[in-house]
From TrEMBL:
It is found in: Cell membrane. This is Odorant receptor. InterPro entries: 7tm6_olfct_rcpt. It comes from the Eukaryota. Its main location: membrane. Keywords: Cell membrane, Membrane, Olfaction, Receptor, Sensory transduction, Transducer, Transmembrane, Transmembrane helix. The chain crosses the membrane at residues 43-60, 72-93, 172-201, 257-279, 291-311, 361-381. The gene is Or309. GO terms for biological process: detection of chemical stimulus involved in sensory perception of smell; signal transduction. The keyword Membrane applies. One of its GO terms (cellular component) is plasma membrane. It is a multi-pass membrane protein. GO terms for molecular function: odorant binding; olfactory receptor activity. Belongs to the insect chemoreceptor superfamily. Heteromeric odorant receptor channel (TC 1.A.69) family. It comes from Tribolium castaneum (Red flour beetle).
Amino acid sequence: MPFEWTIRKNKIKPILQNDVLLNLMLVPNTIISNKFLVILNYFYFGFIILQSVFVAVIIITKDEWKLLNGQYAGYTSGCAIVWSSYITMYTYVDKFLNLYKEIFPHLWSLDVVGQDHFNKFSKMAKVLKLGKNILLVVGFLSATVGLPWYRDEYEIIITVRVYKDYVDKWTTLLYFVLFSSLYHIALTVIFCVLCLVYMVLHLHNQCVMLNKRLEALDDEQLFLDNDNYQDFVTKELKFCIQQHQFLLKFAKRLNDILYYPTFYYVLSGVVTGVSLLLFPKNDIKNLLRCVLIIVLGGGFAISFCFLGQILENASEELLFSAYSARWYLWNIKNRKLLSVFLLKTQDNIVLSSSGIITINFRLLISLYQSIYSCLTFLLNIK
């Protein structure tokens, strides 16, 4: 991404009418529209790049490969999470914004299928607003816990060990920048999470509203009262087919953004889980820190999988509604259109990393199975 300040012009502005979820974008909007924060973002981004290159050079030239395993494995996997978040923010922020500008003008307003649905969505938005505040607090606590309170950072953080062993001067300044960057990293992760939640919930809502529109075709009163019923069904089915293809395009572009981050998050989650169990420390302070890491990691994993699962469920309900349609009331032309719609809805609208990793509740089971398998394998070797 080129170094330029035009990003300040890309602040997310309301497109959908009565978009109650736009509050989720308050933090991302602040980050990408404030000049001071933009400068700070580039400073920390540059620092982390140089720091990673420096550590990699030390590991290669000094034959310090042992730093990538043992008690440092957790930190190594944590770096993968950090880099995944930074790649998402700095490489894909324009894609997020372009996706928003190109897709959202064509989406339905939240109140298009009735006030009851809008009220339900508004209540969920209030819960998400509370969740956003909790996420900010959790991010602050996570960064604070990462500070050198226990004086054992030399034993678990590769960068600290490299600084102490191979840098004689400026270590105090480097430590200050390193640990202050934890807060910036937390803010970056929160940025990515809120953008993803905002996009996925709107995609899910569009699937729900499309399903309600499809269910409306089953109203026998329309068949009895409307002389042009068959023409009405034809028009609605064609629209549903086009809208479903549009939502598939929406999901595909979102999955393109999630391709690498999803892979890194899953891999780092497995490595972190194995390292915490394989290299435990027996004192109460480190036990509390491990518990916090497990709770935070588990909470993020459950949240992401929940988003993917509700989206997948909404997509499957479209297929179920199509199968349940009263096709026997329709003419041959509309039955053929229904057949086309059934074929199209075989392609589920899901969150996935190129079809290799699908984000749903089954992914949680796969994660725990992978952690157990790796841990068993390493214990047998050990």
